[in-house]
Amino acid sequence: MLQYIPFKDYKGGKHLYRLWNREFKRSYPISSTLFKERILDDANFDKENSYVALYERMPIGFILIKRWMNEELFYSETKTATISLFFVQKDVRNMGIGKELLNLAMQGLKEYPYIEKVQLGHDLSNLLSGLPSDLNKYAPFFMNQNFKQEEGYVDMIQIVKKDTSQQTVYETPKKIHFRIATEEDKEVILKLCLDNDLLRQTYILKKYFESGGSGRRVVLAYVDDKLIGFVRIYDSKHSSIKVNFFLDKSVGSIGVMAIDKEYLSDNYPERITQEAIHYVMMRGSKKIMIEQTKDVEFYKKLGFKAFKYYMRFVKYLNKEEQN
């Protein structure tokens, strides 16, 4: 017997990543820790509008939804809901199960009139930034459900070279001093973000410190005594990043970056990024990734190459009804 039940009523929900790994363990493995961190423990995980498809009480598919439920005074993404992870077992595809899971989720989301669009991936604590290009055979499914394809995101990678003599050194008009952040730097970091209207970065860094972050993952850039920017880094020792590579302990990553708007030219962004790369290298990473970026040309200058492309799909609820 085939049935669809809300995630909140399914007792085996914490093990759904195993169903995903049966097919994608090699290319996009998800560990129990990553699943817990990015889905189960996310305050925006919508257990009521996420569904599991069961056949003879065994899971054969699921759709996991996020919508903004955090109470933050300075930042919110209430207008956007996200399909964070969507899967149907290979031997039961093309039987309408995925369509029914999506319909159930969409019906629930339409109960919230402030939600204007539903996106595939790319929430604040995402597993995937969209539909990976190597899974593009599933793109017609979303297009047939009135999703529109928009500009996607790119993962980029750089293999660390011991010989850096040929590397371009970006000079800046004023000398920059760098150091690793501490817990005491939290307020000045958040102030930099707020002063430059970088609200998404403010939210991410605020959550980082509130979750026990010590600052060791944040590289600070100063001109004289003024903080002009920071980069959040992930080294190979302390990293749960990257679904593609999170099992590869040699991979580090550069994540959130924020720079004072007065220092967005004259090689300051390049120089700050170079120093962040240096810190990741010093912590033992042999490969460095840039995740879900659109700034491909900027990172190419710094030696990165495009590694993976994610197709972005969005469904606009109001437009769908108008058309």
Question: Can you summarize this structure?
Answer:
The protein is α+β, with helices and mostly antiparallel strands. It is built from 9 helices and 13 strands.
Please give a structural write-up.
The chain is of the alpha+beta class. It folds into two domains: 2-128, Gcn5-related N-acetyltransferase (GNAT) (Aminopeptidase), CATH 3.40.630; 157-309, Aminopeptidase. It is 27% helix and 31% strand. The chain is built from nine helices and 13 strands. Strands 1, 2, 3, 4, 5, 6, 7, 8, 9, 10, 11, 12 and 13 form a 13-stranded mixed β-sheet that branches. The longest helix is centred in the C-terminal third of the chain and has 15 residues, at 268-282. The model is unreliable at 239-247 (pLDDT under 50).
